[in-house]
Amino acid sequence: MAKKISIAIDGPAGAGKSTIAKRLAKELGYMYVDTGAIYRTVAYFFDLWGVAPKDIDGITRYIDELNIAIEYDEEGVQHMIMNGIDVTDDIRTPEISQKASLVSAHAIVRDMLLDMQRDVAKQYDVIMDGRDIGTVVLPKATVKIFLTASAEVRAQRRCDELNAKGMKANYNQVLKDIQQRDYQDTHREVAPLKMCRDSVKLDTSDLDIDGVIAAMKDIIQKKVAK
Ligand code: DC
Prior knowledge:
The protein has helices at residues 17-28, 35-48, 56-62, 94-103, 107-123, 133-137, 151-164, 171-187, 209-224, and strands at 6-10, 31-34, 68-72, 78-82, 85-86, 126-130, 143-148, 200-203. By secondary structure, the protein is α/β, with parallel strands linked by helices. It has a single domain (11-218), classed as 3-Layer(aba) Sandwich (Rossmann fold). Strands 2-6-1-7-8 form a 5-stranded parallel sheet, sandwiched between helices. It has a 3-stranded antiparallel sheet with strand order 3-4-5, covered by helices on one side. The protein is globular, with a radius of gyration of 17 Å. The two termini are 20 Å apart. The model has no long low-confidence stretch (mean pLDDT 95). The structure holds 2'-deoxycytidine-5'-monophosphate. Residues 13, 35-36, 39-40, 97, 100-101, 104, 130-133, 181, 185 line the site of 2'-deoxycytidine-5'-monophosphate (DC).
């Protein structure tokens, strides 16, 4: 099997990773893998079971009851399947965002999900986004990009996104949530969010989506053409 191309996109919550990665994947014909959705599924599962995301004993006791699968529909949209149930829409709430950030700090959770993420990258050309893709999941990725933006810009974008879905959003609360998640995701012991030496940093604070896409294509073309 020919070696697959993998594009690792890491960065903090709300930097635009999934919007950008989804569009790029479509344009380049790669598979898009949203790894945050996998951690959200874990958080959702333990939430249903009444296990708090910091309760490592409860997590250790019940983790074997959880079966996670990633499926793609005809349009290439990623669906998260939890014990046979499609939970794709259920995992997109601010509460699950916070719980995913906490539950993802446990090594037992991260270890369980590692092979699943690597397997997709073995089979397909991928654009994979998350927090530890360039550092841990795909350390040999063809291209590594660290996408970031100021916390204020990210909070505003998240509010716009929630409003567009008809959900109420309070800017100050969203900003607080983002800052809290930034702290948790960068300060955990296992696979914290950090930029690796060989990744290219792209600050999207002053760019619109088309600007980010153009900048990313430029970075990707330079590396893939080598
Ligand atoms: O990308 P997201 O906001 O959907 O991710 C939700 C949480 O999952 C995030 O706050 C931290 C965790 N996560 C992680 O630890 N590692 C990843 N590769 C992706 C997400």
